[in-house]
Amino acid sequence: MSTKEQLYPYRFRLVGGLVGLVIAVLFLTIGFGPTMLLLVFTAIGFLIGKWRDGALDIEGWIQFFNRD
Known about the structure:
Strand content: under 5%
Number of strands: 0
Number of helices: 4
Radius of gyration: 17 Å
Low-confidence stretches: none
Largest sheet: none
């Protein structure tokens, strides 16, 4: 069994841990404000890319936030 097959069940934990590590390093090196700005711009870029790919369900988001 290869290492890739052994780590496959833990892939989301590993990705989450790596993302947390990167964010922690950014907080320590450039500070809170610039890190938050970077994360906001990254999220906006992701949403624009998803919209351009045709995979963003805007009506679903509107319905979600307009629930009674």
